[in-house]
Amino acid sequence: MSSKKILVVDDNLIIVKTLRLKLEAVGYMVLTAMDASAAIKAVRDENPDLLIMDINFPADVSSGGQVAWDGFGILQWLDRINKEWRKPVIVITGEQSASAETRAKAVGAAAFFRKPLNHDELLAVIRRELGEAGPAAVPPA
């Protein structure tokens, strides 16, 4: 069992719940956030070991005032407030453009996954980034 903390940031409740269940089933502590404010608070308060970050948020979720947030904006904000926060980030998105993957790599994402997610591959990347070994099987939903 791992004691590593993973923060899942996505505005889709089904994805958040599914990832929580699958990751907790293999021993991770899972924190969740569905908007920029909650994501930044979770990083500050909980210091997760890895982030799984959606990059697209609808306007009603992302604006939270006058700033339109996306996953890249959240990562930039975290860098601005604390350079030491940096942990592995896995970007997930429903966006199909090649530019999203290029931009994710440019900000230093450890991996890029398009939705729907392959949970076995995602878990293998998580374990690699956290320096853990073990079977890559994810329990069925």
Explained architecture:
The structure is a single chain. It is globular and about 35 Å long. It has one domain: Rossmann fold (3-Layer(aba) Sandwich). Helix 5 links the parallel strand 4 (89-93) and strand 5. The chain has six helices and five strands. The protein is α/β, with parallel strands linked by helices. The longest helix is centred in the first third of the chain and has 13 residues, at 13-25. It has a five-stranded parallel β-sheet, sandwiched between helices. Helix 2 packs parallel to helix 4.
Topology, pairings included?
Blueprint: E1 5-9, H1 13-25, E2 29-33, H2 36-46, E3 50-54, H3 59-62, H4 71-81, E4 89-93, H5 98-106, E5 111-114, H6 119-129
Parallel strand pairs: 1-2, 1-3, 3-4, 4-5
How many β-strand stretches?
5
How far do the termini sit from each other?
A: 19 Å
Strand order of the largest sheet: 2-1-3-4-5
Mean pLDDT across residues = 84
Element-level helix/strand string: EHEHEHHEHEH
Features:
about 140 residues, alpha/beta, Rossmann fold, five-stranded parallel sheet, globular
Can you describe this structure in just a few lines?
With 141 residues, the protein is α/β, with parallel strands linked by helices.
